[in-house]
UniProtKB/TrEMBL annotation:
Record-annotated HTH lysR-type domain positions: 6-63
GO BP: DNA-templated transcription
The protein's name in its UniProt record: Transcriptional regulator, LysR family
Keywords annotated in UniProt: DNA-binding, Transcription, Transcription regulation
GO molecular function: DNA-binding transcription factor activity; sequence-specific DNA binding
Highest rank taxon of the organism: Bacteria
The organism of origin for this protein: Advenella mimigardefordensis (strain DSM 17166 / LMG 22922 / DPN7)
Gene3D superfamilies with a match to the protein in the record: Periplasmic binding protein-like II, Winged helix-like DNA-binding domain superfamily/Winged helix DNA-binding domain
Alphabetical list of SUPFAM superfamilies matching this protein: Periplasmic binding protein-like II (SSF53850), Winged helix' DNA-binding domain (SSF46785)
UniProt similarity note: Belongs to the LysR transcriptional regulatory family.
Coiled coil: none
Amino acid sequence: MNLTLPPLNALRAFEAAGRLGSFKEAAAQLHVTSGAVSQQVRLLEEWLGAPLFERHNRRVTLTAAARAYLAKIGPLFEQLALATANFGVPTTVSRTLSVNASATFTLRWLVPRLDTFRSEYPDINVRIETSNEPVESLKDTYDVIIRGGPDTFYGYSMQPFLLEERLPVCSPALLQRLPLHEPDDLRAHTLLHTTSLPRVWTDWLAKAQVDGLTPAATLTFDHFYLTLQAAIDGMGIAMGPTSLVADDLAAGRLVTPFTSPRLPSRSYCTYVPDASSANEVVVLFRAWLEREGEPWISGG
């Protein structure tokens, strides 16, 4: 079968502009000028005999036909990039796994469970680095990146494995000194905050239908794991992610004075570069994370 293909450069410019919704951003990603992207898109429009974009002042939007076209050709570019990255690469599987995750998640959830993965796969060497940098801002390449989500990043596959909710948590000793019978009783307590989560208490109090509450004091930390440690040490009450404090609740280091309302939070997801998605150690690690996170996914 003799198939006629449109110009590859024109297709690439269209794919980038359609995905990003901007000729300027597409030009930056492709390392060309905005004019070059516009010219290539017009070339493809002439080749197809139909417009692909509705042009506005600073943004462009795809036509309905172009959206359907992009949905079909986008994965082809991903497959092409993966095939190119794997060209000439030996088929032997690396037994080293590099993981990047946030410090709080690593300390509170991953490390306490990691020994089970090492027991199942003792031949896999795991290297973990902690960071709160967005996926697209990481300078180094990792086999698996763990962040909140679900989000979509070009060139990465995403897989949720751990659902999350938030509830007030505190030490049992603090609750004995200052009992909490209803959310309004929080006025007598110190509320613990984290700078990266400025609205979490406000949102929970609104959901609990408590308006204008002024606590006895507030204490703010720059890292969330410090906020949780302060709660364990009886310094105040924190908004605890249910999965990350599960071990502390089970051990009695923390208690939940209220079982509701539960404040929804972002799930934990794995983000894996397309070039690593078929790597055996990545597949095994992702499957293990899903098994460990299954009680939360199923509502346990």
